[in-house]
From TrEMBL:
Pfam families membership: DAGK_prokar
PANTHER family attached to this UniProt entry: DIACYLGLYCEROL KINASE (PTHR34299:SF1)
Active site: 70 (proton acceptor)
Transmembrane segments: 32-51, 97-118
Binding of a divalent metal cation, residues: 29, 77
Organism of derivation: Winogradskyella aurantia
Molecular functions per Gene Ontology: ATP binding; kinase activity; metal ion binding
Protein name: Diacylglycerol kinase
Record GO cellular component, one term: plasma membrane
Entry superkingdom: Bacteria
Localization per Swiss-Prot or TrEMBL: Cell membrane
GO annotation terms (biological process): phospholipid biosynthetic process
UniProt remark on cofactor binding: Mn(2+), Zn(2+), Cd(2+) and Co(2+) support activity to lesser extents.
Family: Belongs to the bacterial diacylglycerol kinase family.
C-alpha cells in the first residue's frame, strides 16, 4: 500500500515537472510561440471550413507532432549550450540535425494542411 502511494505521488510529481517544462518552453521559445499562433489559426480554419472528425484528428496530431519535436529540439539546444557553450563544429551539426527534425515535421504539416484545405478553397 505504501509502495502504491509513493508510485502515484511520484507520477504526479513527474506530471508537475512536465507541466513546468511546457510552460518554460512556451514562455522562452520564440519558435513555439509562432507555432502556437499558427495552431490557433489552423484551429479557427478547422471550424470555419467545418472539417471532418478524421481531419480534426490528423490536424491535432500534426500540431502535437510539430510542437513536441520543437520541445525536444529546444532541450537539445539547452543541453548543447550547457555541455559546450563555446562555438564548436560538432555542436553546430547536432543543433542543425535537431532543427532539421522540426523542419521535416513542419513540411509534413504544411502538406497535410494543403490536402485538407486546398480542395475546400478551390
Ligand atoms: N555552439 C555552437 N557552435 C557552432 N554552431 C552553433 C553553436 N550554437 C549555434 N550554432 C549554429 O547556429 C544555429 C542556431 O542555433 P541556436 O542555438 O541559436 O538555435 P535557435 O536559433 O534558437 O533555433 P530555434 O529557432 O530552433 O530555437 C545552429 O543550428 C548551429 O548551426
Amino acid at each position: 500500500m505504501q509502495k502504491k502511494e509513493s508510485f502515484i505521488s511520484n507520477r504526479l510529481k513527474s506530471v508537475g515537472y512536465a507541466f513546468n517544462g511546457m510552460f518554460i518552453l512556451i514562455q522562452t521559445e520564440a519558435s513555439i510561440k509562432i507555432q502556437l499562433v499558427i495552431a490557433v489559426f489552423i484551429t479557427m480554419a478547422g471550424f470555419y471550413f467545418n472539417i471532418s472528425t478524421t481531419e480534426w484528428m490528423i490536424q491535432i496530431g500534426m500540431i502535437g507532432l510539430v510542437m513536441s519535436i520543437e520541445g525536444i529540439n529546444t532541450a537539445i539546444e539547452y543541453l548543447s549550450d550547457f555541455v559546450h557553450p563555446e562555438n564548436d563544429q560538432k555542436i553546430g551539426l547536432i543543433k542543425d540535425v535537431a532543427a532539421g527534425a522540426v523542419f521535416i515535421a513542419s513540411i509534413v504539416a504544411v502538406i497535410v494542411a494543403g490536402i485538407i484545405y486546398l480542395p475546400k478553397m478551390l
